[in-house]
Amino acid sequence: MDDQQLLRYSRHILLPQLGVEGQERLLKSQALIVGAGGLGCPAALYLANAGVGRLVLCDADTVDLTNLQRQILHHMGTVGWPKVESGREALARINPQCRVEPLNRRLEGKLLDDQVAAADVVLDCSDNFSTRHAINRACVRHRKPLVSGAAIRFDGQVTVFDLREPKNACYHCLFPEGQDVEEVRCAVMGVFAPLTGIIGTVQAAEALKLLAGCGESLNGRLLLLDSLAMEWRSIRLAKDPDCPVCGGSRS
Ligand SMILES: [Zn+2]
């Protein structure tokens, strides 16, 4: 780290659990953020500000006026832009040293596989089940830690599937494909603006801990937030030994 970096990250370096070593790890790491919306915006902001070396930001959408209520990377000047370009511009203004690679397309197939393989941590900030399952399968395949968040109306949830360890549950263990409860979307149901900030920020915190190698992650625990009552609940997660994604073939 040069003098500027030592200053910029000094409040992290002061933390004994992080220190110079943890900060160096962040600077060398690469995170994949799928979705530059309500969850992806705060997650990307904190990862870039905190010094993660490289961020791959993936989203096929363009910025719309209805996004600005909660998607805090975007602003009036970038309405109509691809969200990932709007995000890159905002992040570069705060921390030009963080290299942001914008992918303005749906992440699937070989691209998804390659990006997950190249990442040190994956943040699922998407808004639909098919993407969530595809990301999970790729993370299981490449044994990458997956930080998963969701927010709708006043309800949020967040957890970590630390798929570096075969004994840990995956997304499919928790939400089996095909049994998906009906898809509810913010466009139809609405979403409380700061809820997405809270959940996306928890995702950033978990990703930073995983990258720096400090603390204990949310692996094995699902946090549920009712932001109307502002009550958190924690549920223990168990691996499904018959899970077709992470179970049979690996045990
Ligand atoms: Zn599983």
Salient structural properties:
alpha/beta; globular; single chain; 8-stranded mixed beta sheet; 10 helices; binds zinc ion
How would you explain this protein's 3D organization?
- The structure is a single chain.
- This protein has helices at 3-8, 10-13, 19-27, 40-49, 83-94, 109-118, 129-142, 171-174, 186-189, 193-212; strands at residues 30-34, 54-58, 99-103, 121-124, 145-152, 155-162, 221-226, 231-236.
- With 251 residues, the chain is an alpha/beta fold.
- Helix 7 (129-142) links the parallel strand 4 (121-124) and strand 5 (145-152).
- 46% of the residues are buried.
- Zinc ion (ZN) is lined by residues 169-170, 172-173, 240, 243, 245-247.
Encode the helix/strand succession as letters. Answer: HHHEHEHEHEHEEHHHEE
**What's the arrangement of strands in the largest beta sheet?**
3-2-1-4-5-6-7-8
Largest sheet: 8 strands, mixed
Helical residue percent? 25-40%
Tell me the span between the first and last alpha carbons.
42 Å
Distinct small molecules bound, one entry per kind: zinc ion
Query: How many helices does DSSP assign?
Result: 10
**Low-pLDDT runs:** none
Give me the count of strands: 8
Principal-axis shape: globular
Q: Quote the beta fraction.
A: 15-25%
- Assign the structural class, choosing from mainly alpha, mainly beta, alpha/beta, alpha+beta, or little secondary structure: alpha/beta
Gyration radius, in Å: 17 Å
Q: What value does the average pLDDT take?
A: 95
